[in-house]
Amino acid sequence: MDQHRSHNPNSSYQNRLSAYKRDREESGRNPCGSKHSRPNHHPYNKSGSTPRQNPPSSQGLSTRRELYERDFPVYKQPVEVGCFSLDSERRFFNDSRQMRYYVEPDRNPNFDLRDGYKDRFIKRDDSVKEKLDHILRWILANRLKLSSKGTTASPCALDVDVVTWRGHLTKLLTSPYETKEGWLLAVTRFRGTLYISEVETEAARRDRETRTERHEEMMYWGYKFEQYTCADNAHSVPDTGGVVNTNEAFCTVVQTRLADHRLLFSGEVDCRDKDPDAPAPPACYIELKTSAEICTPKQRSNFHRFKLLKWWAQSFLPGVPRVVAGFRDHEGVVVTVDTFPVSKMSHLIKNEHNCWKPTVCMNFCCDFLSFVKRIATEDNPSVVYLFSWEPHRDVTYSVHRDSQYSFLPHWYVEEMTSS
Ligand code: 0WD
Ligand code: CA
Hints:
Blueprint: H1 13-16, H2 24-27, E1 44-46, E2 59-61, E3 79-86, E4 92-93, E5 101-102, E6 111-112, E7 121-122, H3 133-141, H4 143-146, E8 162-165, H5 166-174, E9 183-190, E10 193-199, H6 202-209, H7 213-229, E11 230-231, E12 244-245, E13 249-258, E14 261-268, E15 271-272, E16 285-292, H8 297-316, E17 322-328, E18 333-341, H9 342-348, H10 358-375, E19 383-389, E20 396-401, H11 410-417
Parallel strand pairs: 7-12, 8-10, 8-14, 16-17
Antiparallel strand pairs: 1-2, 3-4, 3-13, 5-11, 6-18, 9-10, 9-19, 13-14, 15-16, 17-18, 19-20
Helix pairs in contact: 5-8, 5-10, 8-9
Bound molecules: ligand 0WD and calcium ion (CA).
GO biological process, one term: nuclear-transcribed mRNA catabolic process
Organism: Etheostoma spectabile (orangethroat darter)
Subcellular location: Nucleus
């Protein structure tokens, strides 16, 4: 297993964030907002005199941007504590066997992303909800690394506050700017740790079940671009005639801290720099994307406002420094390839009026996690606090016992409790 811990998590990352930081020590405010001092702009909204029982929820959390324009919160440099792989049949392995190596393409490669869609494509069954299962398997296989040793109250509690997928955190980061898609996040407190697992919304299920053939094919294009630009080892070349199988995945597991929230999350990584002298993970990782080619100023502005926000949030979280984008035409041919350093993305948007800000994203996520900690107090693996959000609304929650929402599997609860 890769376990690159060659740098101090407290070191230079904060310095590299200096563009976002403005005198937070001087302001003396809690960066996490719970002592936020503007009464008329408090993110925790009380709706009337409804008691604090559920459902429906009585207290919400606002996603309005202006509430989160504070100093950038502390975000420690993410450290890779492990990784895992999912094979062509979605079986879990506690190792890096699915790691792939980036092979830099031509700047104008003319890759045909439609090739193989009909006859060399095995698609993961996305009606199967895996919830946190793969991460939980990784935790059980690597428990000793994560346990706080010696406290008699909970002899093997994890030394983290939050366990989740990176993709769920991405949705939180982008919420203050999201106008179309809401989310549902199920939270269970177990042995002091909050587990956060997404629940598919009705709207998302409907979209998934009614996707057009064109949309299905376009979803394939991103994976085909990966095949054109990735090799199975540092010395080989891409196998562009092979099968694209979206069951396969390589996932990094990182630990970091957002203000006072200790986070453990996993995210799928597309590939790494094949240079043996490249920096240790996650700094050698590369995120691959495809996007429609940009032909007009309006398209450029939309790309900056919407797409770059999602790309930034997704890669900033685990500390992936580069996004390589293939810009394709309507026929699925990649006309240009460009590299976007994640640290420069927020500079590219400076000319857009009223555009997204990293500090708003991070402060909202931080305040959401504080909100969750205050609400999800009962430590019980079968209790779910369901947090729900729709654009232009506050985040609300409801509580569910032994319901369809419970997501911590018995095998996990038993193994964590029995030793
Ligand atoms: O069942 C579900 N609804 C979910 C499954 C929700 C969230 C994650 N997952 C699984 C994915 O199958 C994958 O193994 O978790 C892993 C990825 O987790 P993540 O890194 O936290 O997810 P995210 O950042 O949203 O996506 C990273 C990549 C995507 O790349 P692009 O460039 O498109 O953002 O993971 C892949 C995809 O390549 N991916 C998926 N692949 C198959 N099915 C899915 C999915 N539902 N979601 C993401
Ligand atoms: Ca990708």
